[in-house]
Specification:
6 strands; six-stranded mixed sheet; Sulfate adenylyltransferase; alpha+beta; about 140 residues; single chain
Length: about 140
């Protein structure tokens, strides 16, 4: 399936469609969310997608596939969930105060959504700046 392409950029969708996506998108457009994490095997390897790179612009898509904002990648790394730093948890701005809270919450969310994950699972951590609000 791969990432959708919108206005010449890869699209990025946060959370699940509906309330989750609206909440996370608004954290970016109205708040302080400046990082996100994705499962490496599921979202990249199995889709044949490269990891984001510094300087890449991504189109934020809402639940209807509409381009509502643009972010620019400032850092992207592949690491074990166990190695995600406190800095990332704070930049993600989803309420986690440290890396342990990030791991506990995200492992629970991914498992609830049917993914077999552990602290050894590889994630892609992406830091970004909001460069365009299209609402």
């Amino acid at each position: 399936m791969g990432f959708p392409v919108v206005n010449g950029m890869r699209g990025i969708e946060f959370g699940n469609p509906g309330e989750s996506r609206e909440y996370l998108t608004n954290l970016i457009l109205d708040g302080n969310k400046r990082a996100t994490a994705g499962l490496y095997e599921l979202e990249y390897q199995s889709e044949g997608e490269p990891v984001e790179h510094v300087g890449e612009k991504l189109a934020i898509l809402d639940s209807n596939g509409k381009h509502v904002g643009t972010i620019q990648v400032t850092k992207a790394e592949v690491m074990r969930i166990a190695d995600v730093p406190d800095e990332f948890a704070l930049a993600e701005a989803e309420g986690d105060k440290n890396a342990k809270e990030f791991r506990d919450g995200h492992l629970a969310w991914w498992r609830k959504n049917g993914f077999d994950v552990s602290e050894e699972t590889l994630v892609v951590t992406v830091y970004f700046d909001l460069i365009e609000d299209l609402r």
